[in-house]
Amino acid sequence: MISRRTLLGGSLAAAATAGGLSGCSTVTRSTDIAALNKPVALPTYKRFAGPKPDLPRVHPLMPDCFYKFPAHPVKVTDGIPGDGTTVTGSAPTSNPIPPTADRNPYWQELNRRLGSPLELNITAAGDYTNKFATSVAGDTLGDLFNVDGAFAYLPQFLEARAQDLTEYLSGDAILDYPFLANAPADSWRGCVFSGGIRAVPIQRGVMSSNALLARQDLLDQLGVELGSPTPDDLMKVAKAVTDGKKNRWGFAVPPTAALSAMLGLPNGWEVRDGKLVHSRELPEHKQLLSITRQMVLAGVIHPDGVAKNNQKVWFTQGSAVMTQDTYSSIQSFYRRATSPTFSVSLPVPRSSDGKVGRVLLGSPNNSIAAIRPSSPERTKLLLRVLNWFAAPFGTEEYLFRKFGLPGRHYTLNGTDPQLTKDGGSEVCLGEFPIQYLADGPYPLYFPGHQDAVEMAYDHLKTVLPTAILPPAYGLYSPTQSTKGKILDTRMDSLTKDIQLGRAPLSDWDDAVADYRKSGADAIRHELEQAMAVQGRK
After folding, report:
1. What 3-state class would DSSP assign to 178?
2. Are the CB atoms for 251 and 365 separated by under 8 Å?
3. Total tally of structural domains belonging to the chain
4. pLDDT tens, 427-442?
5. Residue 118 and residue 107: Cα distance in Å, rounded?
6. What domain of life does the UniProt record list for this protein's source (predicted)?
7. Which domain holds residue 400?
């Protein structure tokens, strides 16, 4: 019998032996694409009938849009989800780690409302991957745990070490947990492995998609019109606003999201002419590299924008007029802003022929979270807790979960909650790590900035009809699991070298050939098999 630590080393032979994962049957067929990607009846989607959005949902992927928090949030749970027993867990955070429960009134109130003490092992997001591997080896993940999606042999790990939730969540069974049922099918596809529902989604939807953000206040001040740009327009505007003597550049980082949309690139993998191809293999991707290289040569990207990433600071302070970030980042930029005229716009990318660019949407989920195998009674208890964590926007439960206790953790500006200093610390800037164990749909809500809500809504309304989700999301490739990170690192490194002029553009062709030979062709074949198994086209 091999140890768990041996399995963590990523050895296919170790995984195939299966002994270190509690007799998991799927580990013995670690390259059986059909078994690993076997579909299952997804949970029934039942949209939560909450407060009416201020703007209509004109597309199935459009998030609910709100100008203000509802004046009278409704309590939507009855009683407490817990049973008095301690619930343990592991989760990351991108914010400073909050005070422990014994020194944190928010956490104490959270335990009271749950009806079970919550003991969380919280890790800085950058360290979570390593901590996850160590916790797997030591069997210390707890009852509920956020899953490292890049973990090698993930289906085999989940079958061995996570509760199969199929009987509890498949089809109408999920209706016992109405806030989990508020997650759409696209999110649940990322939770299915080896023919079972092995996790719950941490939803983000289109709000996690990268877009081109512009400092509209600076453009207005400089008298420069960005409009709805083509690739040539982007370069012209960037040159017009760049002034190194004034510590101002056109872009914080290479605007790859906008350029990808303009050039019609795939969202990772895509079926073209009956064959799965990757963006990196296409001439349009090489064109993207050429354009970003020209931008670096022209001096319109921040001097550290390729090698380093401090884009949020540069964009906020005005060192960069444009940057690339998610829709959900807009609120954080307004919070960071020091200029009273600070204003963000979202230009719609267009191809050279003037058509709306094909925007590449982010994955439906930020991540997923799993439950330790247990008795049916314990599993139902933990699902009730996760269901409570997923209470949606506009509810009393959501207000507490995100903002804590009135007076101590937040005050009201009209009907909008605003975190106090204690709220920032104890509620983890409104992002207490339970949001990485379960969460509701991410709304388009920028309190105090109705114009920003309307701007983002109009942008999404324009781009969503032709935008594309990652086609390979919810498919599992063993080669991607074990070699994907290495392959991506190599190609990303060469991308930076080409952009910085340390390598010629011609090196890309040889690199792509090696990329295919070293694993991409195997990944392609496995994903094509997985698509066939799941009936995707």
Report:
1. coil
2. no
3. 2
4. 998 999 999 999 999 9
5. 8
6. Bacteria
7. 81-206+365-443
